[in-house]
Amino acid sequence: MRHFQRAACAALFLFSLGAAAQLAAPEIDSERVERAAASARRHMVAAADPRAVEAGLEMLRAGGSAADAAIAAQLVLGLVEPQSSGLGGGAFVLHWSEKEARARSYDARETAPAAARPERFLDRHGNPEQFMLAVASGRAVGVPGVPRLLEHLHRAHGRLPWARLFEPALRLADGGSAKTRRLARQLAHEELLRAGPAARALFYAGPRIVNREYAATLRALAAHGADAFYRGAIAQDIVDAVRAHERPGDMSLADLAGYQVVERAPVCGAYRGYRICGMGPPSSGATGVLQILGMLERTAFARAAPGSAEAVHLFSEAARLAYADRARYIGDPAYTRIPVARMLEAKYLQERARLIGARSMNYAMPGTLDPETPGTSHLSVVDAEGDAVAMTTSIEMGFGSRIFVRGFLLNNQLTDFSFRPQYLGQPAVNRVQPGKRSRSSMAPTLVFDKEGRLKMALGSPGGLVIINYVAKVLVATLDWGLDIQQAISSPNFGSTNGPTFLERGTEVEELGDALAARGHVLNFARLTSGLHGIERAPGGWRGGADPRREGIAAGD
């Protein structure tokens, strides 16, 4: 593989790949793939840890709904995968009701405190401060959304008693849970978390974690609902921890008490006769995925051989254009009008697709649209009624802000805001503002067939690269005919409007010479996606889990 242009892995690009890319990815082998996949007739759960999958199945077997199973699974993930999600973070959820034939989306993204200002992450000279200094600080912590979201989901779509959903997580928190190899590796490389006495005593005391503080927090939530988190002693402890940090934040009790989940209309579009729905702003997930697919539909992608240099070239160029638009136009719709409909118009996508040529553009500029008037995890669930949940949930970087309270870690989600208040000579759409929700790439996705039946539920962690991961699975299933497990296991590739990245250690590396000849600047990276999905199959459902991580799919 001579003549490769191996771009240096700049720090910012590494951060964009998410916490999972900071360590070597596990080798993908056939045994791991076989263990991750499953088929079922009635119901199914796919998530990042077998214990979370088992918690979800316990609820489904007890007659619970997809929402009940998702809640129970998330509560377990917050215990066994604390570096990726939990009560101190946020999430986006797509919910499908088979009876109503209706998709809903719920935004539980963290919000900036009322005291936040656009210059939050600038140093005294007006320059963006060092990224990790911003991450490991009280200023990075947004008001968490997960506890209020879980309560909201249960009220809208739950069948089992609220307290019942906490039982699996409580058993593990009280009785102890073994560290996964992935968590142990990440803890070994994590110095900032180790510095805190409470986190050190919990995570570094041995091979098992007994988290009685987390159990006490869960019992308070089970007994009193989400208000036990957003008001009273737990809220006071969160505020105190954020403000007592050596780089203190400014979250207040009023910020916590005022937090609300927002139900939004899903963003939907067509591709190859299928209908694909996802999360709208402040997530760029659905818009980015649909832009990539919409541009590919207007190129020769359908004629390119699966996994070929031509296919990777076209995909990466479409991703580059979509990420350029993402940076320019996507933010919190409560603060600016987001031109989502125009970004997905056929004429506009055709204009953008025409920019894709035989050679890589390497860096794309956003398209022209006049403004309209005024550490992450994923789980998918389908229940016996055909209802489905696709939930992507996050505390941002691995271990979040490293601030540990009441048995859980607080997020650093505010570092997803633009550090510079200006972008291309205008106020940045994603600048910090009071009460605002930062832009995200999380892309929980539902796919429907030509008859309107649910075909797939999927999503992934992975920071900025999530949009590429989800779009890859969609083209692999809808264009290339792979099943959900084959699509998830296939090599990752794409672009975030920088180097074209190819997954190290996979056959896609062999495309390097051909892509370099087309002008691509290449980055060979450990692209540790955490894709989890469920698809309709003859007689029931087929599940897939990412063999790059430790999750599985299982059902009955």
Description:
The protein is α+β, with helices and mostly antiparallel strands and about 550 residues long. The chain has two domains: about 45-265 and about 375-425, no CATH class; about 265-365 and about 440-555, Gamma-glutamyltranspeptidase, large (L) subunit, C-terminal domain (Serum Albumin, Chain A, Domain 1). The chain is about 35% helix and about 20% strand. The protein is built from 21 helices and 23 strands. Strands 1-22-21-17-16-9-8 form a seven-stranded antiparallel beta sheet. A hairpin with a 2-residue loop joins strand 14 and strand 15. The longest helix has 21 residues, at about 310-330. It is globular and about 60 Å long. The protein starts with 10 loop residues before the first helix and ends with a strand. The model is unreliable at about 1-25 (pLDDT under 50).
